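[step 3/7] inverse_fold.run input=structure_tokens len=159
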């Protein structure tokens, strides 16, 4: 996140009843803003605490949105897992309906072309298919959560 964005978040927390906010950006970078416990609403002091995942490397500089291209799944550098990334902005759903079972679960074996999830964008339900065959190692997003373009959703072990 840029400094201006963090400053805006601090102002929002200071001027509201919110005690804490955490924002997660691409590549596992997180920013947590928390009001001091003994402050009142008018004199609220906010603390910015950067939170980073131990296995997440520092992210590269933010790409120019105009020059962004559609990327294929990439193989993680430290292990042989393939990341399945979001092809669009939307809402992530693990099942076709709230009362239906999930398309896939962690530990299951999937084949290339198998449906992994649904991404809702502009009231359209888009099925996301596996690009490779393998075992689902990790589902990185909770059900019904908003997702960003190119955000990692699944880790698949192709071996």
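[step 3/7] decode complete -> sequence:
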């Amino acid at each position: 996140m840029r400094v201006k964005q963090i400053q805006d978040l601090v102002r929002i927390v200071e001027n509201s009843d919110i005690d804490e906010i955490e924002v997660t950006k691409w590549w596992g970078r997180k920013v947590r803003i928390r009001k001091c416990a003994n402050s009142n609403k008018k004199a609220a002091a906010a603390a910015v605490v950067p939170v980073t995942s131990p296995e997440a490397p520092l992210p590269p500089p933010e790409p120019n949105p105009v020059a962004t291209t559609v990327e294929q799944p990439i193989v993680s550098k430290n292990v042989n897992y393939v990341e399945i990334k979001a092809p669009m902005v939307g809402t992530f759903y693990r099942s076709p309906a709230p009362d239906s079972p999930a398309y896939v679960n962690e530990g299951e074996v999937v084949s290339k072309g198998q449906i992994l999830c649904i991404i809702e964008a502009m009231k359209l339900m888009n099925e996301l298919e596996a690009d490779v065959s393998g075992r689902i190692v990790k589902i990185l997003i909770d059900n019904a959560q908003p997702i960003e373009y190119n955000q990692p959703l699944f880790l698949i072990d192709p071996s």
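[step 4/7] annotate
Confidence is low (pLDDT under 50) at residues 39-47, 64-76.
Helices lie at 3-14.
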